[in-house]
């Protein structure tokens, strides 16, 4: 089995959301030693996120940060800096897609570990979210196909198996996917035009008589 490549952090852009104190200064120093480009702020502007590769933020802040994406669907890796390990704070961080934690006070060790963790877990989170979205699309497609089948069943007085066979036959005749054809039907394409599709598909040239 091929081992995963060790990530290179040099040149990556970091947004550090934390008040200017010893923790921030220590982390800045460590990130700079790794060759990372650090932008430190008390708060983030909306346009900042498009330019960032990874974000460290203060999870102990009285005013919780808001991120410009849906919960648990972060666009960039998030590392929460936390000194007070309360269940509520941890739950909030996990719900917002945090992939790693850095314990405060920040020390000379732990930063590289947090970066390695976030690299792996963020990639895994993206993979899982992609799979979930694909499954949701499949479910949506199946619902649309079922609606199209109901229309065909009603129009031609067919049972479900017969309706699906007609849908499949028409899709092959039109050289489109079943899902795409179902969308057309649900969007208003009259199914009555499919009446002779099977005949057109199965029609073969007349055989020559033997002499």
Automatic annotation (TrEMBL):
PROSITE patterns: ANTAR. SUPFAM superfamilies: CheY-like. GO terms for molecular function: RNA binding. Residues 125-186 form the ANTAR domain. InterPro entries: AmiR_N, ANTAR, CheY-like_superfamily, Sig_transdc_resp-reg_antiterm, WH-like_DNA-bd_sf. This is ANTAR domain-containing protein.
């Amino acid at each position: 089995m091929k081992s995963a490549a060790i990530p290179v952090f040099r040149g990556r852009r970091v947004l550090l959301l934390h008040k200017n104190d010893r923790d921030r200064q220590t982390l800045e120093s460590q990130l700079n030693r790794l060759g990372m480009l650090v932008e430190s702020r008390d708060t983030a502007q909306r346009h900042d996120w498009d330019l960032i590769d990874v974000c460290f933020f203060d999870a102990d802040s009285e005013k919780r940060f808001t991120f410009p994406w849906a919960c648990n669907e972060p666009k960039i890796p998030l590392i929460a800096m936390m000194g007070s390990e309360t269940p509520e704070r941890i739950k909030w961080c996990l719900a917002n897609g945090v992939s790693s934690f850095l314990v405060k006070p920040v020390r000379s060790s732990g930063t590289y570990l947090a970066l390695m963790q976030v690299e792996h877990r963020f990639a895994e989170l993206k993979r899982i979210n992609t799979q979930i979205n694909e499954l949701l699309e499949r479910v949506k497609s199946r619902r649309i196909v079922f609606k199209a089948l109901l229309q065909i069943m009603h129009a031609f007085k067919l049972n479900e198996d017969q309706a699906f066979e007609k849908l499949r036959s028409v899709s092959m005749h039109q050289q489109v996917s079943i899902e795409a054809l179902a969308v057309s039907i649900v969007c208003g394409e009259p199914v009555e035009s499919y009446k002779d599709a099977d005949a057109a598909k199965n029609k073969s040239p007349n055989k020559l008589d033997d002499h």
